[in-house]
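All the exercises in this workshop are built on plain-text protein records. A record pairs a protein's sequence with a compact description of its fold. The structure tokens are whole numbers drawn from a learned vocabulary of backbone shapes. Once this layout is familiar, the rest of the handout is easier to follow. An example says more than a description, so a record of this kind follows.
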Amino acid sequence: MSATYAPRPHSVAAAFTLVGTDPSRQPRHVYVSTTATSEGGVDFMAVERVVNGELPLPELSEGEQEMAARLMTREGYSAHQIAARVGVESRTVTRWRASWKKEEEQS
């Protein structure tokens, strides 16, 4: 999968959330920082589980949903795939992406 738009992290938390991926593992596995597992009400471990599709999927807060969507966008998932995994409508993912793109253009 290749992303058509990969947004930059919107916060310090998002900047260090994606530690790396293991390209030899199919599907690729996204890792989060092991030194900080949460910040500002965002549980990075729950986000990691959702991004990687580890069942049972935890319920995410709004901030966690958006962070997971950002990471999955970066990994090349479609809006429909992200919506199904994160628990939102695909239109929500599309709106988030438009917002991220607008933020990117302004900075």
